[in-house]
């Protein structure tokens, strides 16, 4: 049994007041193990990103509690880093400098920053691009740099908000493979938001299927198939059909 990295206990998130009040999430409870890869899957507006923002400490529950390694999440912290759909790289910094940015903010020595940056440049297979600027990189390469920068500060939990949604299908598949390879090396906990059933099947240890607003957990599906996974394999096609059935029931 893995120790709990994240515990979400009966969390509700409400925006606005009175007649304008909107319930984005309703009584959500979930746990994530310290090395577990969790995909949050559901339609637009079901509260996936809202939940991720609360995990990051950018927003707070209206009711309930979120804890990270036993501590209540009240603000952003170095134990939780986030990778957005947009690359969010500093355009005036090189690949190496972008990766080192968080390390320098933490006060790490220059030599140690350089050593750590070199490790992650090699891990994400960007050797030779250390001195390039984001504008000189492809979309997939930029997202690899964003992933390396997030991992370089050694977070306990990696939060990812549809990080591959803007990529073409070929690059997206390659980045999925790259993410699994890096995750298997680093073994951090991951919360990954996606609209794609195939992506969730390929990546996750645990798929959390959410209902339309107000967001609730419709079902949690444990993925037992070994990686690498082919979403078109018979056992995974069955999982896909089951998820589609859950989503259709939630909408009816």
Describe, in short, the structure shown.
The protein has helices at 48-56, 95-105, 110-123, 139-152, 169-186, 197-203, 234-251; strands at 4-15, 22-33, 37-41, 63-68, 71-72, 80-83, 157-161, 189-194, 206-210, 217-222. The protein has 252 residues and is α/β, with parallel strands linked by helices.
Portion in strands? 25-35%
Number of strands: 10
**CATH level 1 class label of the domain at 1-77 and 193-252:** Alpha Beta
Distance between the termini: 36 Å
Low-confidence stretches: none
Largest sheet: 6 strands, mixed
The ordered string of helix (H) and strand (E) elements is EEEHEEEHHHEHEHEEH
Helical residues, percent: 25-40%
Number of helices: 7
Please state how the strands of the largest beta sheet are arranged side by side: 6-7-8-3-9-10
Q: Considering the protein shown, what is the CATH homologous superfamily of the domain at 1-77 and 193-252?
A: P-loop containing nucleotide triphosphate hydrolases
Topology diagram in text:
Layout (H helix, E strand, L loop, with lengths): L3 E12 L6 E12 L3 E5 L6 H9 L6 E6 L2 E2 L7 E4 L11 H11 L4 H14 L15 H14 L4 E5 L7 H18 L2 E6 L2 H7 L2 E5 L6 E6 L11 H18 L1
Parallel strand pairs: 3-8, 3-9, 6-7, 7-8
Antiparallel strand pairs: 1-2, 1-4, 4-5, 9-10
Helix pairs in contact: 2-3, 2-4, 3-4, 4-5
């Amino acid at each position: 049994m893995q120790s709990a990295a994240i515990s979400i206990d009966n969390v509700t998130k409400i925006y606005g007041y009175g007649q304008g009040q909107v319930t984005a999430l309703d009584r959500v409870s979930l746990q994530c193990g310290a090395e577990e890869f969790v995909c949050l899957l559901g339609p637009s507006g079901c509260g996936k990103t809202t939940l991720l923002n609360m995990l990051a400490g950018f927003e707070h529950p209206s009711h309930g509690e979120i804890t990270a390694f036993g501590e209540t999440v009240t603000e952003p912290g170095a134990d939780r880093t986030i990778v957005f759909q947009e690359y969010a790289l500093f355009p005036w910094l090189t690949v190496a400098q972008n990766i080192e940015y968080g390390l320098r903010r933490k006060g790490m020595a220059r030599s140690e920053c350089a050593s750590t940056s070199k490790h992650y440049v090699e891990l994400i297979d960007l050797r030779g691009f250390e001195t390039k600027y984001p504008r000189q990189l492809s979309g997939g390469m930029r997202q690899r740099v964003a992933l390396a920068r997030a991992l370089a500060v050694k977070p306990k939990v990696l939060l990812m908000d549809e990080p591959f949604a803007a990529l073409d299908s070929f690059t997206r598949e390659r980045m999925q493979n790259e993410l699994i390879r890096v995750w298997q090396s680093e073994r951090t906990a991951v919360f990954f938001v996606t609209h794609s059933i195939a992506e969730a099947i390929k990546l996750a240890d645990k798929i959390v299927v959410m209902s339309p607003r107000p967001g609730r957990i419709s079902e949690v599906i444990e993925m037992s198939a070994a990686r690498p996974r082919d979403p078109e394999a018979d056992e995974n096609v069955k999982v896909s059909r089951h998820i589609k059935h859950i989503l259709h029931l939630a909408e009816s």
